Amino acid sequence: MRAELAAQYDRIAALGCGIDHADAHSGALYGLAGRRFYLDAFDLCAARRLPFRFPKTPGFFLRETGGRAAPAIKAIHGAILRQAEKRNVLLPDDVFSDPRKAEAIESRDALFAYYLNAVRGCGAGVTEIFLHPRVSEAGPGSPWRKRRWEYDLLLSGALIREAKACGVQVVGPAQCYR
Prior knowledge:
By secondary structure, the chain is mainly alpha-helical. It is built from 8 helices and 2 strands; from the N terminus they run ααααβαβααα. Helix 5 runs parallel beside helix 7. The mean pLDDT is 88.
């Protein structure tokens, strides 16, 4: 895992892309399934002085699982946080994304409402809200329609307007980790 993480970092850097944080697609490096890949990720982040997308609060994981397995998640979560702190890897306080599958979202307005409520619910500290927007059209019943609706949400400016209305300061990855 260490070699793969280093190779991915080196490849991205060689392409001229600025790397301002690390994350784990679908939580593959989070360690919540018992694998300790987060140690490899934290070591890379410490060596490269990168923050890592792993929330300090367990809310993200509880939302993702619908609240199931709360005691196990909380115990593992605490152990992972201690490893990040030991390595001085910066983490956001919370992370938010809509965990629902496309077919469970009744409408575009319902998806908008989910994210606007997330903005309204931001607590003190850094909350990272991430989406997976897609430009192309997705027809009714398509699993891609959720991504199209997320694209529409970003284009609408509604998230920024809601943040301003709620007194939430919007920053990019380089400014949000402390």
